[in-house]
Design goal:
Blueprint (H helix, E strand, L loop, with lengths): L4 H19 L4 E4 L19 H7 L7 E4 L4 E5 L6 H5 L5 H8 L3 E3 L3 H5 L5 E2 L5 H11 L13 H12 L3 H24 L6 H13 L4 E2 L4 E3 L19 E6 L1 E2 L8 E6 L6 H20 L6 H18 L7 H6 L27 H4 L26 E4 L2 E3 L2 H4 L2 H4 L8 H5 L6 E3 L2 E5 L4 E3 L8 H7 L2
Parallel strand pairs: 1-5, 3-4
Antiparallel strand pairs: 1-2, 2-3, 6-9, 7-8, 8-10, 11-14, 12-13, 14-15
Length: 458
């Protein structure tokens, strides 16, 4: 699936027009941010502009700052260093950038005069250096995660725009999903006992690089699926292990894929692994089936919890009423995270804006274990993209914590759970687009059934 530059350019123009309508005559400043050094100034991490800037302009313009003056947008850019062409090749001219964005482009040195003495809203850039520059320009402190009263209208306007994806955004999410599918198929094919997780990770990320894409987040490829965000890749893969791979593509424009699959290193699930896997798969199936316009996302999480509870009762691991086991937080001992999150330009979309983005007005994050990790509590609407990712994990720090496990009492049969010792962690995750009539699973092509997964291994 190829990228349509004209579609993306038109979409950015339309997004800026919609933002201008929401802001009225209130001025605003959006910074792209600067590259960050790994250790010394000339050794930089790969550059990625801030998601808010990419949403409006679609270009990775280092150090750019966009200003809306109450009627129109202007881009301010640093003058290219004279040596830049030597090291990186010729930079696009201001005229070429103006033509590509349909915005006037000015030297960054002229920016201060355009905002001096004005009450200008902004959103913190990802890097500290740009936040300091924003603070200097606007004569107030700008910090990541802090939404000033002056910034609130801009913040809420960006949330309103980015919650429901337009045609161009959906096209990019489809491209990310397609590349992510290729990565997971490559990872399954590369899996062998005796190899390290690093070898499988390399195969998965190579599939993305071959498509001109990178990773939307640090890849998780591990036989220790109970460590939710493990970034170790030195573990040797052994017969009897399950390998959990959470890997997602990022398109050139910054749009994310986010998928987890769990598969047996040997190519065959053991009976206990099969039981747990089928239970997680059923929880995911029911949660996805609940997705549609008007559905409260928190209820999707509850459906997943209740399905897991019912299956764990059938397996003899839990005792009692599944609804009560889910509501009381007993299931959270084995499923300690939320069922998913928003997806878009950020893998956890707009998480830089905190719960203001993820939670609808009037809703607050729970303080209960498990439910407090739910990143989204909004009513779903067409155009929203979300992940659905239930899981089961045996996390010793949870299961051996008396304060956390007290809620279970005699409802958790530890002897029955011990029989599933060859399951450290299983998660199954897909990217789902809410449609007018229901939902579309963007990553449906990735093997997920027992039979499809086993046939794809090595």
């Amino acid at each position: 699936m190829t990228r349509d530059p004209d579609l993306q350019r038109r979409a950015c123009e339309q997004r800026r027009a919609r933002l201008a309508k929401l802001l009225g005559n209130r001025p605003a400043l959006i910074a792209a941010g600067l590259p960050r050094p790994r250790n010394y100034a000339a050794n930089l991490y790969p550059y990625r502009a801030s998601s808010h800037f990419l949403y409006l302009f679609g270009l990775q313009l280092r150090g750019a700052i966009a200003v809306y003056d109450g009627s129109a947008f202007t881009l301010y850019l640093p003058e290219p260093h004279p040596d830049l062409a030597l090291w990186e090749g010729p930079a696009p001219t201001f005229e070429e950038i103006s033509a590509a964005t349909a915005c006037p482009v000015r030297p960054l040195a002229r920016l201060a005069a355009s905002v001096r003495g004005r009450a200008v809203a902004t959103l913190a850039a990802p890097d500290v250096e740009t936040c300091l520059e924003q603070s200097r320009l606007l004569n107030r402190e700008i910090r990541p995660g802090v939404i000033d009263v002056l910034d609130a209208p801009l913040c809420d306007a960006m949330i309103a725009l980015r919650l429901q994806h337009d045609e161009a955004a959906v096209a990019e999410l489809r491209r990310a999903a397609e590349a992510t599918a290729a990565a997971h198929r490559a990872g399954m094919a590369a899996t062998r006992p005796g190899r390290t997780a690093a070898v499988v990770r390399a195969a998965m990320e190579a599939a993305l690089i071959a498509r001109g894409m990178g990773c939307a987040y640090p890849s998780i490829v591990t036989p220790h699926g109970e460590i939710l965000h493990s970034e170790r890749y030195d573990h040797e893969l052994r017969e009897g292990d399950l390998l959990l791979a959470d890997v997602g593509a990022e398109t050139e424009g910054g749009w994310a894929g986010d998928v987890t699959r769990t598969w047996p290193v040997s190519g065959r699930f053991s009976p206990t692994q099969r039981d747990f896997y089928l239970l997680v798969l059923e929880a995911q199936r029911r949660a996805i089936a609940a997705v549609g316009p008007g559905t409260r996302y928190r209820n999707v999480h509850v459906i997943a919890c209740q399905t897991l509870a019912s299956g764990l009762v059938d397996l003899g691991i839990l005792r009692g009423d599944p609804i009560a086991l889910a509501a009381d937080g007993v299931v959270a001992l084995l499923f300690p995270h939320g069922v998913g999150h928003l997806l878009g330009l950020d893998v956890h979309d707009m998480e830089d804006l905190g719960d203001r983005a993820g939670y609808a007005p009037g809703r607050e994050r729970s303080k209960e274990f498990g439910l407090r990790a739910l990143r989204l509590d909004r009513d779903l609407a067409p155009g929203m993209a979300i992940t659905i990712e239930p899981g089961l994990y045996q996390v010793e720090s949870i299961l051996q914590n008396p304060a956390l496990t007290r809620v279970a009492g005699d409802r958790l049969d530890r002897k029955k759970l011990a029989a599933f010792a060859d399951v450290r962690g299983i998660r199954i995750e897909d990217d789902v687009l809410v449609t007018e009539t229901g939902r579309e699973v963007l990553t449906e092509a990735i093997p997920k059934s027992i039979e499809a997964v086993e046939s794809a291994i090595g």
